[in-house]
Write a structure and sequence with these properties.
The complex is a heterodimer of chains A (446) and B (153). By secondary structure, chain A is mostly helical. In chain A, α8 packs antiparallel against α9, α8 packs parallel to α24 and α9 packs antiparallel against α24. Classes of the chains: A mainly alpha (446), B alpha+beta (153). At the A-B interface, α6 and α8 of A face loops of B.
């Protein structure tokens, strides 16, 4: 390997750290420019690192966090099969009827439903499931959908922060550190509940209190028969049973000593088995093909390339240098470092994709362990990274994938989401959520 | 002997300034589900289809993503749907006109036309490659008529 690295240095007239850094910066710049699909960019960058000899193929494959990929894939498969049952639609309509279809009540309930779904599903999947129902209800109520969609964007990003499986940054952090589903639930869910409540208060004052619907329009929503939205009761029961077992598996992860990826993939396999048992081979092939093809392969391949890229710069020593610079900037003070990670993660995640950011920060934080009291002492830093990276995405329209997906769906329905208009309300709300996180981390851990 | 044309040169069409009410009336009168829409020069603007018209009667949420798997839980009555239809009756058809995925030319081969019909096209506009003017329409029935016509081929 040493010889290969040397060859790379000779080829470009640069030391390996220079080659890796150049490739890393170029790759991130192209990802941020949105000119090329991010999976293509990450895979190209990773491939180039191997081709120029910074990494061998064996090292590159060993750098891939298969636990993160497996967990993502398993949950994607479970959700894709479950959605066919109509479960998510049922819950959304049921919740709207529980508040007698009052405009503010619907906004509150749809936000809560979105946050809860998002805690267990990928944020983008969550908004793809909930936004069409919101559009339907607001159309029936004849109220402006924008405030509802805005609240749902926030709810999806906030809810996703609450659990290990809610947002890719948490999956990456959990996988890299061994923090379990229960760790995330115990340390993040309480503050997320507070942040969710605190976010809905300004939303009420900005929009909620002005929303009005006639009794007749509310009656339209109350006439929805949510039980009719369950399209496959057999699949519903199977899905609920598998989801319950998978979550139980996550909760008992330490006791049963099985990694989350195995739990999620096994759950997906069991659900596919239940869904296909007794069916002819052609139907089985069709069902399995549909489930597999609906997985977010772009995201999975993006992660794969990213893990290799980050390992490339880690191996050449760049991550270690960045960690030393951060420690120097914070004077090596544990509290300052923790809170700096929280705020910097939030501000950066409002502008750039939080997945590559977190992928880079994980080894960086790990390399600070010797200066900050060892691995066990890093816990607050992980929560700071998670809260900052996940909640920061709410700051701008481009801060998180879910924001752009909602904006895209809204655009197709003739509702404009503009960058500045969104940011005027979103950025202060994001700052409030980070301020709450700041207080929480300071009081509980520092 | 020249084989008979596979497409129909006598067909109903709409002007882009016609209204949705005009279009639905014409559809009922002519018993068709797609009508070509042309501009003042006779050039094809697109198709006004029942498919697109029905989309306008659906809640917008049903047309977004995969979130709404069905609408069985919505109990809108025929009268409510009719009211929605009246709301768009005076809108110009161009609002609901889409360019079809496939357009053929007078010299497009029969087997190519059959392939397009087999792949799901219903009524395919036939346009002049030089001027873009609409010169005919070809449907699955037109092809059947051509195939079974005496002396064909």
């Amino acid at each position: 390997m040493h010889g290969e690295t040397h060859a790379a240095a000779m080829l470009f007239g640069l030391p390996p750290i220079g080659v890796a850094t150049t490739l890393f910066v170029l790759t991130y710049a192209v990802i941020m420019s949105d000119r090329l699909n991010r999976a293509i960019v990450a895979l190209l960058g990773a491939g180039l690192l191997i081709l120029v000899g910074v990494l061998t193929q064996t090292e590159a494959m060993a750098a891939v966090d298969w636990n993160t990929l497996g967990l993502l894939l398993g949950m994607m498969l479970i959700v894709n099969i479950t959605r066919r049952s109509g479960l998510f639609q049922y819950v959304a309509i049921w919740s709207a009827k529980k508040v007698k279809a009052s405009p503010w009540g619907v906004m509150l309930m749809m936000s809560i439903v979105t946050a809860v779904f998002s805690a267990f599903l990928d944020n983008v999947t969550t908004v793809l499931l909930t936004v069409p129902v919101t559009m339907l209800i607001t159309e029936e109520l004849k109220v402006k959908p924008y405030p509802y969609l805005f609240a749902q964007i926030f709810a999806s990003n906030i809810g996703g922060t609450a659990t290990l499986i809610g947002d890719p940054p948490n999956i990456m952090i959990g996988s890299a550190t061994g923090l379990t589903f229960n760790d995330f639930a115990l340390h993040l869910t309480p503050v997320i509940v507070v942040i969710m409540a605190a976010t809905m208060v300004p939303i009420y004052y900005v929009w909620g209190r002005h929303l009005v619907a006639t009794d007749e329009n509310r009656r339209h929503v109350m006439n929805f028969n949510e039980s009719q939205s369950i399209t496959d009761r057999r699949l519903l029961k199977q899905s609920l049973a598998v989801i319950a077992l998978v979550i139980l598996g996550f909760m008992l992860q330490r006791q049963i000593e099985i990694e989350p990826a195995t739990i999620a993939i096994f759950g997906a396999a069991v659900l596919m088995l239940l869904d296909n048992v007794g069916r002819d081979s052609e139907t089985q092939s069709k069902n399995v093909h549909a489930a597999l093809s609906e997985a977010e392969w772009i995201t999975l391949m993006f992660f794969l390339g990213l893990f290799i890229l980050v390992h490339g710069i880690q191996k050449t020593g760049l991550i270690g240098m960045m960690a030393q610079m951060l420690l120097k900037a914070t004077g090596g003070d544990f509290n300052v470092t923790t809170l700096a990670i929280l705020w910097a993660s939030a501000l950066l995640s409002a502008l750039i994709d939080n997945i590559p950011f977190v992928a880079t920060m994980i080894p960086l934080i790990k390399s600070m362990a010797p200066s900050l009291g060892g691995d066990a002492a890093l816990l607050p830093l992980w929560w700071a990274l998670s809260l900052g990276a996940c909640l920061g995405g709410n700051g701008t329209l481009i801060g998180a994938s879910a924001n752009l997906v909602v904006a895209g769906l809204a655009d197709r329905a003739g509702i404009a989401f503009r960058f500045v208009e969104f940011m005027k309300v979103a950025f202060p709300l994001m700052l409030i959520s980070i301020a709450i996180s700041h207080v929480y981390i300071y009081v509980r851990y520092l | 002997m020249k084989p008979p044309a596979i497409y129909s040169t006598t067909f109903a069409s709409l002007r882009d300034t016609d209204t949705v009410a005009d279009a639905t009336r014409r559809m009922l009168d002519d018993r068709v589900s797609d009508l070509p829409v042309v501009d003042a020069s006779g050039a094809l603007v697109g198709l006004f289809s029942l498919h697109r018209f029905y989309a306008a009667l659906l809640p917008k949420g049903a047309l977004l993503g995969d979130g709404l798997t069905d609408l069985a839980f919505v109990s809108d009555t025929l009268a409510q749907l009719r009211a929605k239809m009246y709301e768009i009756a005076d809108d110009p058809v161009r609002t609901f006109t889409v360019m079809p995925e496939h357009v053929v030319h007078p010299d497009t081969t029969p087997v190519q036309v059959i392939l397009l019909l087999h792949r799901g096209a219903n009524n395919i506009p036939v346009v002049s490659p030089e001027s873009g003017t609409l010169v005919g329409m070809v449907s699955a029935r037109d092809v059947l008529v051509a195939l079974t016509a005496a002396g064909a081929g």
